[in-house]
């Protein structure tokens, strides 16, 4: 072992051996228990041996996650002897009688390792291969390695898919279980409903032999005695497990109405503390999930269908979602709480007509052009989808935010969706749920397939903040989800595009005249330029590089494992360099080529690469190949890599551009307006409390910044309230309070932190603690 990973500071390991075997489909069957703060149940993995992706060599190898170089030791789990008596724990369909749940109703206090009596092992990176052979070399048994953390794994077994009635129609050899799975996965896209149905039936089939498994800090390792290759390894396995209350993939908290809820927080470790999975982005899969919770809760999830609850006995409900577009497991999202669906006070007839105009069906599966991705029922091949400007959408939030949602958010969704369609064309996803998440959410928004999380902070400040953030998250449907980065260190391919497109979408959503749109976008460019300057002055140089792996970008070890540089550094979550430098690069290209030319190309790029993973060169090479030489002087992939993607600090082309530009007229007006308000706030005058509260609600963050800057002690209670209620934006205000070096402001910051730290996102809490102490 060269070193141990510091779980709070270092690189994030992706240990799944995706070069040898891939998960193609997940079936989750879960119960959410708020009393014990545990999600428990089973997950069935349908696997495909071999790798359809071309192997890439790399000097990065993942070491055996153990304290020594001895062979990994595997143990059979101790069987639980508790009979199943809880009828809500699993569905009433076949095959679940041999599953048991231990300790339901109490918080999980078992050790950090997944097995009952295994000692926790440390994970690390070295130049050696996995000491337990994960491939097909020699006589050692094949080892399936899954990314897994903060889970208690209770049992792993092979699933007897041959026992499913009617399964024989998929194969001429009905006794060969792996062949059945292969034939099921090979069904054509227009039979997706039948495929999902048989995935569900297979997931409920009885087990046909327990498998050996072991866990360590970062992985679950599974093998079958006598199975020496990935081809021999079972292609359908069931894992019984439970999450831990302290698991980092989800957060258990209370919403703004004080009711309990749980949701995925966009953790740096992604979903490996929610279910065992293959985290590397190349492991693109589909999924379906059945989730049960008390009937008073609403379950929202990444899913193509707008799920409705099925009433179960004992006041429990069941929710079922599915996805047919293969995506990385990291994009899976779930939120369970007492959410209320927010509807407009007056329902527009146009909105109703739009939502009813498109209902996906197999009969509508018509090909338009040729797609380059693996086969799935793609919206780009459906005539009705290509012309659908506004996809069906729902808004959920705690009941106490109904007024704010109706006033601010609901009216913005149709124009923002329509604007996005006018720029990029076909919406990649058939529907959209938007959830206003609890106050401890550490970001302004997060996009996942079919669902967007928004911070309550976006509901203040009139429509500007809400509209621009909504446009940013909508843009991720194309860049970040439908088109993903093959190497997660190239975060700019997601965030840079979304930041650039949010301005374009928002200008169209507002129906601005061309000169008004240019002025608004130039003002936002001025603000981002100043933010980028601050960022590069106050962050490590190595974390300012957009393509840190350079020529090794996209490379993995022979097994498929890799690491994400700085993936566990809590400060990285709050850095905006990938957003800002990526934005300025795309803005530079659009201006150099001409916006009409650039966005025409971008639509072509989306049609070519949707449903696929890309690297920076895929975008840049196609861009330059589609642009006449006279429009791209001195532009080359190598130059862009050198000037923009592989260097720290401010890119030289951007530096020259900003020095040559005078501040735009709109920016000058804003500067004058700010100066005026500073003068006004210095004047002593009486103001009614109600008026002051209304002003505070509209400009909370800007108001608090002015309070801190001018040490306006009479309004410190407004700052305290903001830090507790708007944690998505509050972390930056903590910095302002501490930089002021004013003892009273620093005391205010520390007191607010002590009141809020238990509810804060872990990364946020770590960063704020470093500021304060």
Question: What is the number of beta strands?
Answer: 27
Poorly predicted regions are 51-133, 348-367, 685-698
Mass-distribution shape: globular
Radius of gyration: 26 Å
Q: Give the strand line-up of the largest sheet.
A: 9-8-12-4-3-15-18-17
Helical amount: 25-40%
End-to-end C-alpha gap: 33 Å
The major beta sheet can be summarized as: 8 strands, mixed
Summarize the SSE layout with pairings.
Layout: E1 3-4, E2 12-14, E3 21-33, E4 38-49, E5 61-62, E6 124-126, E7 144-147, E8 151-159, H1 177-185, H2 192-203, E9 207-210, E10 212-215, E11 219-223, E12 236-243, E13 250-254, E14 260-264, E15 284-294, E16 298-301, E17 310-311, E18 316-328, E19 334-337, E20 340-342, H3 349-356, H4 383-386, E21 393-397, H5 402-409, H6 413-424, E22 432-436, E23 445-448, E24 451-454, H7 464-475, E25 483-485, H8 492-509, H9 514-537, E26 562-564, H10 577-593, H11 595-609, E27 612-614, H12 616-625, H13 637-645, H14 652-660, H15 665-682, H16 689-698, H17 700-709, H18 716-725, H19 727-739, H20 743-756, H21 762-772
What does this structure look like?
Belongs to the peptidase M1 family. Pfam families: Leuk-A4-hydro_C, Peptidase_M1. InterPro entries: Aminopeptidase_N-like_N_sf, AOPep, ARM-type_fold, M1_LTA-4_hydro/amino_C_sf, Peptidase_M1_C, Peptidase_M1_dom, Peptidase_M4/M1_CTD_sf. This protein is an alpha+beta fold and 773 residues long. Helix content is 33%, strand content 18%. The chain contains 21 helices and 27 strands. The strands form seven sheets. Strands 9-8-12-4-3-15-18-17 form an eight-stranded mixed β-sheet. The protein has a five-stranded mixed β-sheet with strand order 20-21-22-24-23, with helices on one face. β23 and β24 (451-454) form a beta hairpin. It starts with a strand and ends with a helix. The relative contact order is 0.10.
């Amino acid at each position: 072992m060269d070193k141990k990973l510091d779980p709070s500071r270092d690189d994030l390991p992706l240990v799944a051996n995706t070069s040898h075997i891939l998960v193609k489909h997940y079936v989750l069957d879960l119960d959410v228990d708020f009393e014990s703060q545990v999600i428990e149940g089973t997950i069935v993995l349908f696997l495909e041996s071999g790798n359809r992706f071309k192997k890439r060599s790399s000097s990065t190898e993942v070491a055996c996650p153990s304290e020594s170089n001895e062979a990994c030791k595997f143990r059979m789990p101790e069987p639980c002897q508790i009979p199943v008596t809880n009828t809500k724990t699993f569905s009433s369909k076949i095959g679940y009688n041999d599953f048991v749940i231990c300790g339901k109703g109490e918080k999980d206090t078992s050790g950090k390792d997944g097995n009952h009596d295994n000692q926790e092992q440390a994970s690390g990176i070295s130049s050696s291969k996995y000491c337990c052979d994960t491939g097909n070399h020699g006589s050692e048994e094949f080892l399936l390695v899954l990314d897994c953390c903060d889970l208690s794994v209770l049992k792993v077994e092979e699933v007897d898919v041959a026992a499913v009635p009617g399964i024989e129609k998929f194969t001429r050899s009905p006794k060969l279980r792996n062949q059945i799975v292969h034939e099921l996965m090979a069904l054509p896209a227009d039979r997706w409903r039948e495929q999902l149905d048989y995935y569900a039936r297979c997931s409920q089939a009885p087990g046909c032999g327990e498998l050996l498994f072991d866990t360590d800090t970062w992985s679950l390792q599974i093998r079958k005695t006598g199975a020496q290759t990935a081809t021999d390894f079972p292609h359908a396995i069931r894992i019984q497990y439970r999450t831990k209350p302290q698991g980092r993939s989800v957060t258990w908290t209370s919403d703004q109405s004080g009711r309990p809820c749980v949701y995925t927080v966009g953790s740096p470790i992604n979903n490996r503390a929610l279910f065992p999975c293959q985290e590397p982005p190349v492991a693109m899969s589909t999924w379906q999930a059945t989730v049960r919770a008390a009937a008073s809760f609403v379950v929202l999830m990444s899913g193509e269908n707008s799920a409705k609850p099925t009433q179960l006995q004992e006041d429990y409900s069941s929710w079922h979602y599915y996805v047919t577009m293969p995506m990385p497991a990291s994009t899976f999202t779930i939120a369970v709480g007492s959410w209320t669906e927010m509807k407009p006070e007056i329902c527009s007839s146009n909105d109703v007509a739009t939502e009813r105009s498109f209902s996906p069906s197999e009969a509508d599966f018509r090909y338009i052009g040729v797609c380059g991705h693996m086969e799935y029922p793609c919206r780009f091949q459906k005539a009705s989808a290509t012309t659908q400007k506004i996809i069906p959408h729902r808004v959920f939030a705690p009941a106490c935010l109904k007024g704010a949602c109706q006033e601010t958010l609901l009216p913005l969704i149709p124009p923002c969706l329509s604007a996005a369609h006018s720029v990029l064309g076909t919406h990649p996803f058939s529907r959209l749920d938007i959830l206003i998440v609890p106050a401890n959410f550490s970001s302004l928004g997060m996009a996942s397939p079919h669902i967007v999380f928004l911070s309550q902070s976006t509901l203040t400040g009139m429509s500007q903040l809400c509209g621009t953030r909504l446009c940013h998250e909508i843009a991720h449907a194309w860049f970040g989800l439908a088109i993903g980065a093959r190497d997660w260190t190239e975060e700019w391919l997601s965030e840079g595009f979304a930041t650039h497109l949010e301005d374009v979408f928002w200008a169209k959503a507002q129906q601005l005249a061309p000169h008004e749109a240019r002025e608004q976008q130039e003002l936002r460019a001025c603000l981002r330029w100043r933010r980028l300057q601050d960022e590069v002055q106050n962050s490590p140089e190595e974390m300012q590089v957009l393509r840190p792996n350079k020529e090794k970008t996209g490379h993995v070890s022979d097994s498929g494992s890799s690491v994400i540089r700085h993936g566990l550094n809590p400060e990285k979550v709050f850095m905006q360099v990938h957003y800002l430098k990526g934005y300025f690069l795309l803005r530079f290209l659009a201006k150099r080529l001409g916006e009409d030319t650039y966005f025409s190309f971008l639509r072509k790029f989306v049609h070519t690469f949707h449903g696929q993973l890309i690297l920076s060169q895929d975008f840049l090479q196609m861009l330059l190949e589609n642009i006449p030489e006279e429009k791209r002087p001195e532009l080359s992939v190598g130059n862009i890599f050198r000037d923009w993607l592989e260097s720290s600090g401010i890119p030289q082309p951007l530096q020259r551009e900003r020095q040559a530009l005078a501040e735009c007229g709109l920016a000058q007006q804003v500067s004058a307006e700010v100066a005026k308000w500073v003068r006004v706030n210095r004047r002593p005058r009486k103001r009614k409390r109600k008026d002051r509260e209304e002003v505070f609600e509209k400009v909370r963050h800007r108001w608090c910044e002015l309070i801190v800057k001018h040490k306006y002690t009479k309004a410190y209670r407004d700052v305290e309230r903001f830090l507790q209620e708007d944690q998505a934006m509050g972390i930056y205000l903590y910095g302002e309070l501490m930089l002021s070096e004013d003892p009273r402001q620093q005391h205010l910051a520390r007191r607010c932190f002590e009141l809020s730290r238990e509810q804060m996102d872990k990364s946020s809490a770590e960063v704020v603690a470093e500021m304060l102490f």
